[in-house]
Amino acid sequence: MSVSWIPQWCDTATESFTLSSGAHEWRGLRPTDWTGTGEGLRRAHGRLRELPVRRIVAAIDVAAERWAKRDFPERRAAVDAATRVTGMSSETVDRALDAEVGTLRTASLIAALERELGDPEVLDGFRGDTMAIGPRTVLAVFSGNVPGLPARSLVRALMVKSSVIAKIPAKEPGFTAAFLRTLHDVEPRLADAVVATYWDRDDDATMSAALEQADAVIAYGSDQACAAIRAKVAPHQVYEEHGHKLSFGVISDAYFRLHGPAEVARRIAADCSDFDQHACLSPQVYLVVAEHARAVAEHVADAMRRAAADCPPGTPGNHDATVLQHRRLVAEWRAASSVGSEVWAAPGGLEWTVVLDDVLLPLSGAGNRVSRIVAVPDLDAAVDAMRPYAEHLQNVGLGAVGDEFWRVAGELARVGVSRVAEPGAMSRASMQWRHDGQPRIAGLVRWCDVDHRPDQRPAHREGVMG
């Protein structure tokens, strides 16, 4: 089945492409007349503007409800494609989709719109004296480290009534087109406002041609990949970036005593196992008050074993396997020379690793279910340990209680963290989260305010130009 989505109205010339990832290949179509495609997307944007925002949300909710069922055929096909290219187990991919698609329900979407816009219906026309207008066309360049990740930005763009050019990720090619096929069955005007295709990262001609059609750009990827896109963005284009990010966990004395070592360990293991620890939301390190660090690490080893039995880890590629083996060797060398270090690992395999240390060494590598427990004197020391990484901080699983929670959360916010979560829930970000600290719905729109109001006018007047 094709990994691209080309609406039927797109009668401009297309060409076939083959997307290769490892030993696997997928095929799709790509427009060659991007000017004509851009004109078609602008017409699709006009049709999209006719839909009330609550009808858009309702249609997305129906599609998400279908995708919530694990036996839904489109989902099974997407899971199969993702397992082949990522090496993740089908259960890991299914849980990732549960998390991503689970955020696309009516209550969650309306809450996100209300949080960022106040009244969602400002997208339909003037509410009082103000109206919000989304871009005509958004270019979204996706990465594939988390299955289902494109759904969030795709849905945000559609909710502000923007058409979309989506560059699908090579590492997770099946989801976007499959979700759009479902959305087309529910409400064709939504899916018909999207062109989803693929081009190589060094194909500057196609990237530039697609970029010329866009009023806004959303980029996911490494810092280098995002910088290359940012350099091409024009001053009039809205730009949103999701580059390299780091996440940490913290466990206080009070939190440890409240929940006990087994439950704390279960939560840490969940955070280090979800998505095989490949998401930016996944913790690189858990900083634990020194008095309890060894007890926590010992219990985490057992919890990681049980998590691997419940949801099997994937098979890392050759490069990742080599990096993981090197990380273990470094940790074992540290353990042999330091009374504050120890290593626990899956017998005979790379399924999971737990490292206890008393020093936060330079972070090297990530992913593949490595739980690093680093002992710190107190919560202030935990915050200080994160300061050198301020530029890339994203998410902290903060295990703290009462006033200490809010005090430390405030310090983390000032350091640069954009999300504070409960340990065990680090990977389950809601749509209300302002992704990477910026309003991702409000950030797309521009506003029109009526500064001089007539004496009498209806409370809600439909906007006629966009």
Short description:
The chain has 466 residues and is of the alpha/beta class.
Question: What do you see in this structure?
Answer:
This protein is α/β, with parallel strands linked by helices and 466 residues long. It has two domains: 14-244 and 434-456, 3-Layer(aba) Sandwich (Aldehyde Dehydrogenase, Chain A, domain 1); 246-421, 3-Layer(aba) Sandwich (Aldehyde Dehydrogenase, Chain A, domain 2), CATH 3.40.309.10. The chain is built from 15 helices and 18 strands. It has helices spanning 34-49, 53-67, 73-86, 90-101, 106-117, 150-159, 175-186, 188-191, 204-211, 223-230, 253-273, 290-310, 318-337, 379-386, 402-415, and strands at 14-21, 24-31, 125-127, 130-133, 137-141, 163-167, 194-197, 216-220, 238-242, 246-251, 285-289, 342-345, 353-357, 370-376, 393-399, 419-421, 446-449, 460-462. A seven-stranded mixed β-sheet has the order 12-13-14-11-10-15-16, sandwiched between helices. It has a five-stranded parallel β-sheet with strand order 7-6-5-8-9, with helices on both faces. Strands 1-2 form a two-stranded antiparallel sheet. Helix 11 links the parallel strand 10 and strand 11 (285-289). Helix 11 runs parallel beside helix 12 (290-310) and helix 14 (379-386) packs parallel to helix 15 (402-415). The radius of gyration is 23 Å and the shape is globular. The relative contact order is 0.13. The model has no long low-confidence stretch (mean pLDDT 93).
